[in-house]
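Hello forum,

I keep getting stuck at the same step: I have a sequence, I want structure tokens, and every attempt I make locally crashes halfway through. Rather than fight my setup again tonight, could one of you with a working pipeline run this one for me? It's a single chain of 1462 residues.
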Amino acid sequence: MAERGLEPSPAAVAALPPEVRAQLAELELELSEGDITQKGYEKKRSKLLSPYSPQTQDIHTEAVQAALAKHKEQKMALPMPTKRRSTFVQSPADACTPPENFSAPPDVTTTTSSSSSSSSIRPANIDLPPSGIVKGMHKGSNRSSLMDTADGVPVSSRVSTKIQQLLNTLKRPKRPPLKEFFVDDSEEIVEVPQPDPNQPKPEGRQMTPVKGEPLGVICNWPPALESALQRWGTTQAKCSCLTALDMTGKPVYTLTYGKLWSRSLKLAYTLLNKLGTKNEPVLKPGDRVALVYPNNDPVMFMVAFYGCLLAEVIPVPIEVPLTRKDAGGQQIGFLLGSCGIALALTSEVCLKGLPKTQNGEIVQFKGWPRLKWVVTDSKYLSKPPKDWQPHISPAGTEPAYIEYKTSKEGSVMGVTVSRLAMLSHCQALSQACNYSEGETIVNVLDFKKDAGLWHGMFANVMNKMHTISVPYSVMKTCPLSWVQRVHAHKAKVALVKCRDLHWAMMAHRDQRDVSLSSLRMLIVTDGANPWSVSSCDAFLSLFQSHGLKPEAICPCATSAEAMTVAIRRPGVPGAPLPGRAILSMNGLSYGVIRVNTEDKNSALTVQDVGHVMPGGMMCIVKPDGPPQLCKTDEIGEICVSSRTGGMMYFGLAGVTKNTFEVIPVNSAGSPVGDVPFIRSGLLGFVGPGSLVFVVGKMDGLLMVSGRRHNADDIVATGLAVEAIKTVYRGRIAVFSVSVFYDERIVVVAEQRPDASEEDSFQWMSRVLQAIDSIHQVGVYCLALVPANTLPKTPLGGIHISQTKQLFLEGSLHPCNILMCPHTCVTNLPKPRQKQPGVGPASVMVGNLVAGKRIAQAAGRDLGQIEENDLVRKHQFLAEILQWRAQATPDHVLFMLLNAKGTAVCTASCLQLHKRAERIAAVLGDKGHLNAGDNVVLLYPPGIELIAAFYGCLYAGCIPVTVRPPHAQNLTATLPTVRMIVDVSKAACILTGQTLMRLLRSREAAAAVDVKTWPTIIDTDDLPRKRLPQLYKPPTPEMLAYLDFSVSTTGMLTGVKMSHSAVNALCRAIKLQCELYSSRQIAICLDPYCGLGFALWCLCSVYSGHQSVLIPPMELENNLFLWLATVNQYKIRDTFCSYSVMELCTKGLGNQVEVLKTRGINLSCVRTCVVVAEERPRVALQQSFSKLFKDIGLSPRAVSTTFGSRVNVAICLQGTSGPDPTTVYVDLKSLRHDRVRLVERGAPQSLLLSESGKILPGVKVVIVNPETKGPVGDSHLGEIWVNSPHTASGYYTIYDSETLQADHFNTRLSFGDAAQTLWARTGYLGFVRRTELTAATGERHDALYVVGALDETLELRGLRYHPIDIETSVSRIHRSIAECAVFTWTNLLVVVVELCGSEQEALDLVPLVTNVVLEEHYLIVGVVVVVDPGVIPINSRGEKQRMHLRDSFLADQLDPIYVAYNM
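Reply #2:
Ran it on my machine without issues. Output:
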């Protein structure tokens, strides 16, 4: 892959005058030695070249330029990603390090505490002020369109314009027609895409296998390769066999045939006789050994290889491991293990260079078996005795050596070659190349495998030739060295790759003294690549003047399994050169050969690789499915049958059969002949005159939507886009990943350190357009990574499978990325159309006919429960407190703990009553308040808050509890306080001295207007006064208190609670939890609204039990506080919030042993209830239960409540009744508002837990929010509630009657003869009848809450719950701390908090896009990566997605990265 040469178009260089070429070459040298910057180089170079442009370009580049020009006409502005400046700093020093000692760039992030739990980084959870104006109520009933507008956001903001750009690009028509998918009622069924009716189809006849010329019979062929070595070693000992070069390219050592023979003998003798004892030799014939020699030491390798052959042990040549975790190293280890290798041969120099542990031993390479290292330098070998002779038998099918190959997925397999195949292959090569004794061959290839081994190590010994080995390291410093060697040694043959041709042209300084006239064969071993044609042409045009003959260029095609597949024979001077095939790319993508006529831009020019090998036979079979012979105009996999291929993959019998023992079949499926063929892994066809053409490799095949594309072709297109300013040539990887039922193309390239953002983005968008134009295929993801960060193969190519793995696991660390799911993904199911015209009544009748229950459920009937309690005769909470103060004055109702767990304050019935009286007196004296005035209570969680509440009731005022502002974060928290004060029209504020000072401070003045606060009364030291008489409301329907809270959608809502509702609420909780005066409960949650407030302030006074109060913020100083308290007081019932549960799970997860040593035991706990207004967080509850099971917590204890704004307590587990149940529902059905239960582990399933038991006196029904008709229990609908403790309405500035009626007093549109008045909770859920028995003896109906209606996203006609998408996203990468999603103009925006290093920011973009597509069938429009703590979370631990959306659109998030998916 990496072996495409360097920059300018080769033909262009060739056409320049010699002096300009010399200056260019000097420039190249200066650049490579670092004497000139890249910028300076480009400037000088363009100056040199300017007189000679317009230049001639190769065909492909012209095609790309034409395609881009076409795109320019339909100019399309793509939104550029937004990037934080600090993120991807590449200091020039780092940028220039060579690949060998590349070190990771320094981490430039600001977050240091990435390892600590995210709770420690997130700022304190705060209730942010609502988004725009005060929304004292929910939005209107049309909630689905909630998210389509940008509320109160200046549209000129940068983000909005980018999104607008993105929307514009998305309006373009997609190229492939959308395949029609139909939606079945039960499930979307993905239809098989219909084939394009215009696609080309093969029309030829079935091909017949093509034979090569017969293998000549020569009388003196040796019976085995070892015999050839013996013959030359003993008769022609002085002849040169192999010459090695030093680092400068000068010959340093020549191995003669005599030396090779004697040293191989010594090694063979040593291996068999000197490694173990006589009775227990370490090696026996047939054992396998690893050969570990560097690429610049061919001599030691050759001796070792032939030594093994003579000892009849099987050599397995591998690369020298450089680090413990080389790219692909683990797979090499797997190969060594499966071959049973325990011994590695190496040279002394190489052994010294291997990585060592501190005590000098060689490190254990990852995945490798334990190896014994044997040094093969001559001085360590024993001379065999005179009578010792190696055993050389005639070549048979026993294994000779194993050559490793890496498959597309990255696994390494060993191709076993028999001695017979090794010999026959040498004969075939000798005949095809017309080798003769004494010829010199220059080899630039890796001599350990493939053509470098076959020609440079085998055929040379067979024919007594002389090989000059030019190592890769020399080529890097002196690219012309191989040409100089050919000239100096008058070599007849050279073995090269296109890369070497390129390099020679680049370094060519018009050296007049270089002559290539001696070459009769220039074997181009990657002649099968799409870019080899232009390399060969350019090289010929430049070097023809140096005596290079056109007929000497001989491309060939090879593969590890089939060995040499075809090679062009050396031509005769003057004979016509072989033809070219100009093929249509579109035809190729359908596997059909069509000569390109219409559009010259999408053509592929290929050259032949000559004829089939002598003695061989070739056929072309379909690449997938059974090996059916192709038609003559069809592309398929080339298979060869001969004695000269591999025999098997070592130890892999199954794969071997499919590769090495293929019997082709005809279209009817019956076998053709009985000769087995070997699959070569090359794609191609046999053209006129039996010439073989290769168009690609099976490993590089990308199957996208039923069409085949070749990775190499796509690379070629990418490089033709003036790449060179932005990326490095030859450092591009193209592969496909499977996302949402199809393969998607990913292009990864290394970016030059000096490329600017704009350049890179420009290049990326142009590459996308070029590939789209030429290949008619979309690129799913294009990523640029910093220089030298892609995993490399030993000879400098890109390690594709490792790159793909890094991409998929999110550790590629790109510095630029562009995703185009909108253009690529054309197989999404059709958007759902709502079925109009079915009235609610018909639905009801349908349900009845189908025998489905109407989804409703109820708690126990309050009327039937007998209470012998004196409390019943009091209608008002204030009266109950007075009664308790007389009846049980010293009974302690409340106890407040501090962080140390000591009680800092207690309140008995009498103390609380007295304190409340004083506060009531102050309200009359200082506040001059009248009955019915609203009073804001601003206190930290504690007993003072409770006293102030009852003080207000005594004075006839209406208390409004408000969370105090956060002193460290006034700008965010004070406006909410101010807003509640204004909205509630409070006549005065009750608070303590500290907060009073804070409200009037200079810091506060910066956030709100402090001059217009209502009267502020400090209740810290009150006069001992009492009211002459306490207020008694005339009716229980009078208002008792106001409950204000900010919803997750950012609405501030206040609800009115009457005295009768308060009484009913306390009574229902008392009955459900069996609360009475001798009981103790522990409460660790915020006391400002909802059920939390009721439990903290109201229930103890009503039921007389003692409440142990634990302010949640104290937990931040002492995580053990809550659990230790429960243990200390042996508490049976405790209440907490999700934030508290999460703190304990994350903070104490690894401290269970500490809890045990402190003697904390939770076996006393009967119920541990999470107070929530959301879908139960099952995963959190389960991990909490599992963690603390070891200290006695019963898994049955943990449960959750459910409440909403209209009714704060609908469900609560309580003490009696069945345990909470869980169900798995199908997510796909849920999006259609249907409930389908599935088994655990089913794909696309969601685990839901029941939200506790329905409270006594509460009835719920599930209703279709649009038609307001009841639904059956297999449907998802809005939960409506009827109960005596429902709130009596919204408290708003403008009393909107319609909304009040709609939300609090609404009737079902049919099917309810009683005309019950229901309140709408605004939550979606469903009811399921379970097998369990309720307290009443009937079967228990469970209520499952799925999510808030306001929060749902309507996308593609389906209903999505943000939490489901967020759960999927949070799982994909360890560095995602939190995630939130919202929509904007029908685009899905995903915000992720990154808790790792900022390098990882761009890794998340493809992962997020993939998972949402796979699991939710949605295309993400924008991915925003932010710092931890950016996603706002309210005091209940719920995400404020609307706030986040508004901040994003107003450009206030300071994101690390924003990616706009195309």
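The longest helix spans residues 757-775. If your local run keeps crashing, start a new thread with the error log.
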